[in-house]
Amino acid sequence: MILPICVYGNPVLRRKSAEVSMEPAELKQLVSDMFETMYNANGVGLAAPQIGKSLRLFVIDSEPFKELYPEEETRKLAFVNPVITKRYGEEFAFNEGCLSLPDIHEDVMRPSTIEITYLDEDLQPHSETISGGVARIIQHEYDHIEGMVFTDHLSNLKKMILKRKLTDIASGKLHPAYKTKLK
Ligand code: ZN
Asked: Residue 149 and residue 170: Cα distance in Å, rounded?
């Protein structure tokens, strides 16, 4: 089922999410709905707060990054109760966008490598070191479950320049090709 995507201004995007503790069947359905919603909106990642659920859960599919990072293995994963335990490597800029912030694309600096522990959608535990494009997507989605969005990382000047665009999104003036939810 395709779900509406919460956009900037929706308070759920500012909440720190709670741990996932639902029935396995319910979790599987939610993960499947999140992938469907993400693909429908042409995203590479989607976090539970973006569909109105304040839960520590996100999905990613790095397939569209193949051209940009041909040396990287494509990853399609669900992260349940993830914890980024370490971030290191040289920070690099990448032009990020977000389904919750339609029409905004800005360079964001983030470290190249992360260490992360998480459960998959079958609740199996994993611990991995991930670099490059996939680490970029994960860090962006991880921000969402902490109540952050990527524009929080920008300079005050950049934020000021973006203020009107953000106000437009928050007042429902933007209409992307997918269904959105302001409240
Ligand atoms: Zn996002």
From this structure: 14
CATH class of 5-181: alpha beta
Active-site position among 96, 106, 121, 141: 141
Q: Is the pTM of this model over 0.85?
A: yes
119 Cα–ligand 1 center, Å? 21
Which tokens go with 75? 């990853």
Q: What pLDDT is stored for residue 183 in this prediction?
A: 87
pLDDT in tens, 111-127: 999 999 999 999 999 99
92 CB-near residues (< 8 Å, 6+ apart)? 109, 110, 112
Cα-to-centroid distance, 108 and ligand 1 (Å): 12
Query: Measured between alpha carbons, how far is 33 from 1 in angstroms, rounded to an integer?
Result: 5
Q: Which residue has the tokens 């900037």?
A: 8
Please give the helix or strand (H or E) that residue 93 lies within, else none: strand 92-96
Residue 19, class by beta-carbon neighbours within 10 Å (0-12 exposed, 13-18 middle, 19+ buried)? exposed
Confidence of residue 13 (pLDDT cuts 50, 70, 90): very high
> What is the C-alpha to C-alpha distance for residues 114 and 75, in angstroms, rounded to an integer?
15
